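Page 42, continued from yesterday. The earlier attempt failed because a stray header line got pasted into the input along with the sequence. Redoing it now with the clean sequence only.
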Amino acid sequence: MRHRKAGLKLNRTASHRNAMFRNMVTSLLKHDRIRTTGARAMEVRRWADHLITLAKRGDLHARRQALSIVREKDVVHKLFEQADERFGAVSGGYTRVIKLGKRPGDAASMSMVELIALEGTKKKKKAKKKKTKSEGKQKKEAVEKKAPAAAKADEKEKASAKTKDEATDKKEVAEVEAKTKKPTVKGAAAKTSDEPSKEKPESAKAKTESAKAKAEPTEGDTKKEKPAKKAKAAPKKPAATAEKKDAPDAATKKSAAKKPPKDEK
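This time it went through. Structure tokens are written below.
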């Protein structure tokens, strides 16, 4: 009975088996993944998990134990530097096995073993601090001071946003009304009442122009009237000449009336 005898023999001697798994683990830690048969992959996973737990422990004894298994010092130093960051938040299950199918030739089932990338999952120990009364009061006062200022800023932003929204809504409503507006009966009546009023001044102007035209004679009328005036004035001229002729007779009479006294002397 095989009690307390874990691991696979794989039809090899102990020395051959240990040398093979040491080489495989070194390659796995160096390149993060290797391709091998299914049975070997399941066994290499046990060796890799053991080395990662040693690296997470991180002391000198753990480093020496890892150096006794891994064949390259650089791989061990790299593992111990990155183990806490990559695997700090996980306790086990650092590798995965992916089946790839059967190998041509002997039809052996092939698998790929790779390390799980868990970067940035380092555990952070939070130190609990006891809050004093003074610190609590100071924090409350700071929050109370910041609250009114923040509330005012929010109110201003909301008010500005509302005004902008209202302005845009009004513009949109006005545009829609302007597009969809139809002339009503009152509007048509008002337009008809306005049209005569516009025509009235024009008719008044026309009347005034026609009155002026009647009052002012045209060139043809003036030509016709001029001879008539001359014909009327012609018979008056002899009368005027007759008066002029009579005027010297009156002057001679006056002079004759004055002369007799001189003759008497």
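Notes: Confidence is low (pLDDT under 50) at residues 196-201, 227-234.
Reminder to self: strip header lines before submitting.
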